[in-house]
Amino acid sequence: MKTKFKWSHLYLVIVFILLYLPIMYLITYSFSDGSRMTNFTGFTFKHYAALFADTRMIQIVIDTLLVALLSSLVATIIGTLGAMAINTTSRSVVRNSVLSLNNILMVSPDVIIGASFLIFYTALKIPLGFGSVLMSHIAFSIPIVVLMVLPKLQEMSQSMLDAARDLGSTNGQIISRVIFPFITPGIFSGFFMAFTYSLDDFAVTFFVTGNGFQTLSVEIYARARQGIDLEINALSGVMFIFALLLVVGYYFIQTNNQSRKAKHQALEESEALAHETTH
Amino acid sequence: MKKSTNAAYYIPYGFWLIFFVIAPVVLIIYQSFFDINGHFTLSNYQTYFSSGTYILMTVNSVWYAFVITFFTLLVSYPTAYFLHYTKHKQLWLLLIILPTWINLLLKAYAFIGIFSQDGGINSFLGLFGIPAQQILFTDFSFIFVAAYIEIPFMILPIFNSVEELNEGLVNASRDLGASSWQTFRQVIVPMTMSGVKAGVQAVFIPSLSLFMITRLIGGNRVITLGTAIEEHFLTTMNWGMGSTIGVVLIVAMFIIMFLTGERNHHRKEARHEN
Amino acid sequence: MSEVIVELKHVNKMYGQTVVLKDINIEIEQGKFYTLLGPSGSGKTTILRAIAGFLDVTEGDVLFEGKRINDVPANERKVNTVFQDYALFPHMNVFDNVAYGLRIRKVKKDDIKNRVEAALKMVRLTGYDSREISELSGGQQQRVAIARAIVLEPQVLLLDEPLSALDAKLRKDMQYELRELQQRLGITFLFVTHDQEEALALSDEIFVMNDGKVQQSGTPVDIYDEPINHFVADFIGESNIIAGHMIGDYRVEFNGKEFDSVDAGMKPNEPVEVVLRPEDLDITPVGEGKVTVEVDTQLFRGDYYEIVAYDRLGNEWLVHSTNPAKDGETVDLTFDAEDIHVMRLNESEEDFDARLESYEGDE
C-alpha cells in the first residue's frame, strides 16, 4: 500500500513536469541573451524591452483585448437572453432542438467554423477585418454563455418566483430583483469563458481576418512560421503571468462560494449534534 | 406575460441561431457543390472519392487522430485516477488546468525550440554522446505535441467521472471479495467509461483538424483534414473542394459523437467545472 | 362574532381531464388557526395556491372579505405564503429577504428597519440581519421565511407544509412556536400538512381532505371522536373499524353481538361501520369482557404497549395498553357504550351534522 502510493505520486510528478517543461523552457529563454532558443547565453531583459517598444505588437495586443472585451460583452447579453428564452420554452421538442443547435458551434472543429463563416461573409459581401473577426467571436462565444447561464436559471425554484410574486412583485420586479441577481454568477462565468475563448482563438480568426487586422494568435503564428524570435518568448512570459492571475482570481471566487456551502453544512451538523446532546 | 416576453428573448438569440449556426452549415454544404469556376457540379465529391490521394489523406488523418487520442488516454487515465486520491486535489487540478489557459500557439512554438537540431532534447541526448537527431518535422513530433496539448482536455472529464464514483461501490466490491485489481477492472473502469468517452470526443475531433500544429511542428509532412481545408480555402482558393472536405469532417464529427454517446462535455466548458 | 375573511364557493379545479378539486366550500374566519389535512394528492396545496393566486380555479369563486378575487394577481392579494422549501432568495441576506416585500411597497427606510427588526424578534432571530441564507440551518431558514411573510402584516398567512423539511425534534419545537405566534399576532393561519398529529395539536379547526374533496371539517376533538367516514377514522389517529349494522336507536350489532351505543337517527338494520379507538379498549380476563381475542404480537412504544390481537372471526384488533400482554394468550377486551362510534356509509357532512344535532339536543 505504502509503496504503491509513492509510485502514483512519482507518476503524477512526471506528468506535471511534462506539462510545465515546455512553458518553463519558453519563459527561461525569454531572459536569454542570445537570439535562439538554444544555449542560454546570459541573463537579460532586452527581449522584454523590445516587446514593450514594439508598437505594432502593442497595437495587436490592444486590438486582441478589444475584440475579446466587445465580443464577450455582446455574447453575454445575447446568450443570457437566449438562456432565458430556452428556459421559458415549455415544449420539450422545441427546447431540445434549440439546445442541439446551440451546441453545434461548441463541438464543431474550429476549421469548420472558420471556413463556413468565411463563405458566409463572402456571400453577404461583408469585408474581412475587425468587423468580421468581432462577429465571429461573438458567434462562437454565445453558446458557452447559454450553457453557463441556463443551469442557474434551472436551479431557480418555481416557489422562489412564487414567493416574489406573493410578496407583491410585478413581473418586471421579479426579473430585476430576483431572477437577474440570482443568475449573475452564471452570467459572470459566461462572460469570463467568452473572454478567454476569444483570447485563445486562432483558427477561426485566421480564416475570417483580412490582411489589415491581426490578433495575437495570428501574429504569433506568422512569426513562429518564420522561426525563433525571442520577443515571442518574452510575450509568453507576460501572457503566462496574465493567465496565472486570471486563473487564481477565478478560483478564488469559486472556492469562496464553496466554503460558504461548507460552512452551512458544518452548521447543520453542529445543530444535529446539539440536539443529540440535549436529549 | 409569458408568451410575449419569451418571443422578445428569442429575437437576438434566434437571429444568431439562423445566421451563425444554420446558415454557415447550409452554406458549406451548398459550396461543396461548386467547382473553382463557380459552376454547379458533383465533381468535388467525385474527385474526393475517386482520387486515391484524398482517401489516403482522410485515412491518414483519422489514423493520426486515433494515435494521438490513444496516447493521450494512456497518459491521462492514470493521472486522473491518481489525482482523485491526492490530498490537495483541487490545487493539483488547478495546475492541470493552468496550461490550457496558455495560448495554444505559444505551446506549439515552445516545441520548435525544444525539438530543434540544437534544442533542448538534442543537448540532453548530447550529454550521453548521442548525436543530434532530426526531431522537428517528423510524425513523432506532430503526435507528441498534439498529445501534449490535448492531455488536460482528456484528464478533466475522466477526473470528473472518477470523482462522481461512489466510494461505497469500491468498498462494496472489496467487501465482496474482489482484489484491488479486480475492483479496478470490474467496477472503476466501467463506471468511469462516460468520462473516457467524453474525453475521447473532446480530443479526437480537434485532432482531425489541428492544422497549425501540422504546419509548425509536422512541417508539411503531415496533412490532416484540417490542413487540407485550410490549404483549399486560403492557399489554392478552391472553396468547393475545401467545403467537400469540410462536409467529410462534419460527417466524421457526427460519427464520433454517435460512438461516444450523448453526454458531451465540451472541452473548454470542462475547465470551468472544476 | 368572527367575520369570514376568505371563502371558497363551489370551487372546482381540473387539469385536462383530471379533477383535483371537487366542489370545495370553505369559510375561513378571522384570527383562527385552520389546517388543511390530507394525504399527498388530496388537493390541499391546490386550495392554498388558489387562495394565494398562483393558480386559476376552473369553476367557482374565491372571495376575500366578500369580494371575488379570482382575477386579482398574486402580487396584489393581501395574503402571504410560507413555502414548503422556504423559497428564500439565496442572493440576499436575512435582512434583505425580510425587507423584500416592504421595499416593493416603497415603505420608508426607517420604517423598513423597524419592521424588519420587529419581525425578526418575533421569530427569535434578533441579530441575524446580516447573515447569508446559506449560513443558516434549516430551522433558522424556516423562521426567516415566516418573518418575511408576517412583516407585511397579512390578514391571512398561508403555510404550505412548512415543517416537513425539519427533523422530529425541531418540528415539535416549531409547532409550539407557530401556535404561539398565531395567538400573539391574532391573524388567521391556514396551514397545510399531511401529519395528523400536527394538525390535531395546532388547529382551531381542521379540514380533512381526500380525493379533492373536503371529507370533514371541525375542531380536532370533534374529528377525532366522531369521524364521519372510514377514511377520516383511518387517517386521523389509530382505529379499529368493524362492519356491523344498526338494530335501532342506541343499539348496534357487530362481531356477532349486540351492544349499547350512543348513536341514533339511523334506519333500523342499516349497515354501518363501527369505530373503536385502541386506547379505549381495556384488557380483562376471559369471560369478563365483550370480545374474546388471542394476542398475536406487541410492540413497546414507550408510554404504552401496542398490542395486535385477532378474534375468532379473524378480525384484527389494535389495543393500546399500559400493561404488557403475553404473546399467544387469550384475553377479553372491554369498552363502554360511549367508546363505540357508529358511522353510516356515504353520509354527507351536512346530513351527519344534522343527525348529530337532532339527538344530541335531546340529552
From TrEMBL, chain B:
Residue ranges spanning the membrane: these are: 7-34, 54-79, 91-115, 198-217, 237-259
Q: Which residues form the ABC transmembrane type-1 domain?
A: 58-260
Q: Pfam families of this UniProt entry?
A: BPD_transp_1
Any one cellular-component term (Gene Ontology): plasma membrane
Task: Provide the protein's localization.
Answer: Cell membrane
What keywords appear on the UniProt entry? Answer: Cell membrane, Membrane, Transmembrane, Transmembrane helix, Transport
Q: How does it sit in the membrane?
A: Multi-pass membrane protein
Q: What are the recorded Gene Ontology BP terms?
A: transmembrane transport
Major place of residence: membrane
> What family does the Swiss-Prot or TrEMBL record give for this protein?
Belongs to the binding-protein-dependent transport system permease family. CysTW subfamily.
**What is the name of the protein in this document?**
Spermidine putrescine ABC transporter permease
TrEMBL record, chain C:
* Record's keyword terms, sorted: ATP-binding, Cell membrane, Membrane, Nucleotide-binding, Translocase, Transport
Q: Which Gene Ontology cellular-component terms appear in the entry? A: ATP-binding cassette (ABC) transporter complex
Q: What is this enzyme's catalytic activity, as reactions? A: ATP + H2O + polyamine-[polyamine-binding protein]Side 1 = ADP + phosphate + polyamineSide 2 + [polyamine-binding protein]Side 1
ABC transporter domain: from which residue to which, for each copy? 6-236
As recorded in UniProt, its EC number(s) are: 7.6.2.11
Q: Name one GO molecular function term.
A: ABC-type putrescine transporter activity
Q: Enumerate the Gene3D superfamilies for this protein.
A: 2.40.50.100, P-loop containing nucleotide triphosphate hydrolases
Question: Can you tell which superkingdom this protein's organism belongs to?
Answer: Bacteria
Q: Which NCBIfam families match?
A: potA (TIGR01187)
Main function: Part of the ABC transporter complex PotABCD involved in spermidine/putrescine import. Responsible for energy coupling to the transport system.
Family, according to the entry, reads as follows: Belongs to the ABC transporter superfamily. Spermidine/putrescine importer (TC 3.A.1.11.1) family.
Subunit field text: The complex is composed of two ATP-binding proteins (PotA), two transmembrane proteins (PotB and PotC) and a solute-binding protein (PotD).
Protein name in the entry: Spermidine/putrescine import ATP-binding protein PotA
**Source organism (scientific name):** Lacticaseibacillus brantae DSM 23927
Q: Which gene encodes it?
A: potA
